[in-house]
Amino acid sequence: MVHKKFYLHCTQCGYDVPDFGEWFAHMQKCPKCGCTVVDVQYNRDNKEIKDLINAKNGEATSVWHYFDFLPLNDISNAISRGEGVIPLDNWKFLENYAKKTYGLTIKVHAYRNDLNQGTGTFKDVAAAVAASVLKENGVKEYCVASTGNIANAFAHYLAEAGISLSVFVPNDALIANEAEVNSYGQRLYRVDGDYALAKKVAAEYSQKFKVLMSGGNTDPMRVEAKKTMVFEWLRQIGEVPNVYVQALSGGTGPIAIEKAYKDLKGLGLVDKMPRFIMVQPSGCAPMTHGWEKAKEQGFPEGWLNQYPIYENPVTKVPTLATGKPGTYPIIAKLVKETSGEIIEFNETHLVDVARLIAFETTVRIGPAAAIAVGGFFESLHQGHIKEGDHVLINVGEGVRRAPDFVEEMIYTTRHINSVDDCERFDREDLRSQLWNKINQIYQ
Ligand SMILES: Cc1ncc(COP(=O)(O)O)c(C=O)c1O
Ligand SMILES: [Zn+2]
Q: Is there a domain that residue 173 lies in?
């Protein structure tokens, strides 16, 4: 038998699917038991990850730095736009805030997914790996249901791979999203309903036309791609922060982090997984509500399967509008295991957060990323961040994908008729105004 680079291990029955050819031929189900969740395992010594993690900055230029531990056989099939190797910025101003307001000494890093060069969100790595694997396996047509960012990223990277993509978005998806998908010449279906309906129609399309559909948050191509973020944190700052804050829709982040920990097992590079602090927008927070109830009741038997389903959720962050959170049992379990939390952030304050971040750092974050940063403030307020913590905030998207949101950030303009209406300007004067907005939330 040929010594294969990797295989897909069924998490339910233990069958080893030899390659993506068989996986795709069975419409991404285990041929033995029908399970849709597999772990990619590599036929190589995981000690080699250490060398990759020791690479200097110039040596890693994209997610493909980790090719040896990604499920692609031939590097010539790799599609890339320099995604995945993005900086972790030390956000001292948040450290100072935690000290001043809560007396806590903490470290804060922001993971700059806005700098991904594909579409400027943390979905770019997933799309780069998926496009490459699909190309390698001769897939010509693909479909995906998305609340927005996956749509953009897949549209872009699959176009680069010459693969036709049909995207199914809910009726509240941003026009900017629709435009971006269209601009790459991919098909967009705007479904008259919510994300749950978009997923349903996409699944029916997949069945009807025998077109492969993205497997969602547990899709092995996506999980493998996203696990590399843990490798990058180790490479760049030498440790995995002990608190991980991310905006939550379906929850690929925690699933991917757990997979990275499996890959790193026995290497002595990581210890416990970080505490997962997952943040939902107040307009669509079913996982938060399920979690809060379970916590109140002391996590009774069967709690993982008890969560609300919100039809047609109304939120300012359509990207996070998963009203029917099918992955709750997986995510809530991981959150519990890591002593984390699922919280919500009041989305009426999103623009205040984004203005403050842009003022302090010149980083312009999108609405979903503002939910994560807002979640940091909320976590401090609720006492979920402790003395000595090292917090990583996953800034999942830049502002480029939400032009309306940029417009909402306007606040310094003065309308004038002549120079008589002008005055000297010191931008420092804006600082207290912006911080007051945050402080007011927690008065
Ligand atoms: C910027 C950003 N943050 C967070 C999320 C939530 O990701 P997940 O579906 O992995 O929970 C998304 C999903 O689209 C996103 O685009
Ligand atoms: Zn199986």
A: no
190: three-class secondary structure by DSSP? strand
Backbone phi, psi, residue 7, to 5°: -145, 170
What is the chain's alpha carbon radius of gyration, rounded to the nearest angstrom? Answer: 22
Which tens digits make up the pLDDT trace of 377-434? 999 999 999 999 999 999 999 998 889 999 999 999 999 999 999 999 999 999 999 9
Ligand 1: atom nearest CA of 369 is 1
CATH code of the domain in which 399 resides: 3.40.50.1100
Overall domain count for the chain: 1
pTM: 0.96
Helix (H, G, I), strand (E, B) or coil at 265: coil
**Sign of the CA dihedral with 193 first, then 255, 276, and 296 last:** positive
Residue bearing the CA closest to ligand 1, atom 3: 396
Cα 310 to averaged position of ligand 1 atoms, centre (Å)? 18
Select from 378, 180, 420, 209 the least CA-distant residue to 278.
378
How many other β-carbons are positioned within 10 Å of the β-carbon of residue 424? 4
Whether residue 184 lies inside any domain: the answer is: no
Beta bridge pairs of residue 131 = none
What spacing in Å lies between the alpha carbon of 287 and ligand 1's midpoint? Answer: 14
